[in-house]
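CORE FACILITY INTAKE
Project code: CF-77B
Contact: R.S. (postdoc)
Sample description: multi-component assembly, two entities in total
Requested service: structural model of the whole complex
Turnaround: standard
Below are the sequence entries exactly as provided by the requester. Do not edit them.
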Amino acid sequence: MGRRYVVFFEPALTNLDAMGNHMATRLENQITDFLDAWRPEAAFAKPLQSDLWQFKWSPRNGSGARAFSGYFAGDEHNIALVLVTFKKNNEDKFNLQQKAFNSRAKSLNRTLDSKSPSDIGTWLEDQRNNSDRKVLDETDI
Amino acid sequence: MSAPTAGEAGDEADNESPEAVSPEEALEMLPDEDEFEAEF
């Protein structure tokens, strides 16, 4: 089992920022459960497609928020690749594009699969200086 | 079941608004395979 990381891509961060503090915080809490869940996959609500997973925050009043994510399980790194976030109210529109998001997650995984653990470690460090991305690891919780 | 809190009621209103980034725009913003490869 490798070290765990969450990488938020730009569309995920942009929609989180626009979501409102309460909803964004609750969804982000669900996502960061990936870092300390008993196993990483347990933090996802469910797998949606071959390479696409869903994070989900569902309060009792029927609102809520979702995220589409890739998941890379390497020898030394387990990475949630959070592609996009959205409100439950808009999930139909995002679900219509599940195949395209799955294809994108698959291509990210394919690239990561072709890299050495050292290359991936360097990439993760680089992402900390990328203002369009956000990286969290087990030390951030 | 308890009534929603004030915060949750506020989110219900927020929930009606469109996203800042649509699914199509999100796919445009995400790196394709060549762009992602170039990050290494």
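Facility notes:
- The interface with chain A takes residues 1-2, 4, 7-12, 14-27, 29-33, 36-37, 39-40 of chain B (CB under 8 Å).
- Residues 1-13 of chain B have pLDDT under 50 and may be disordered.
Invoice: internal transfer
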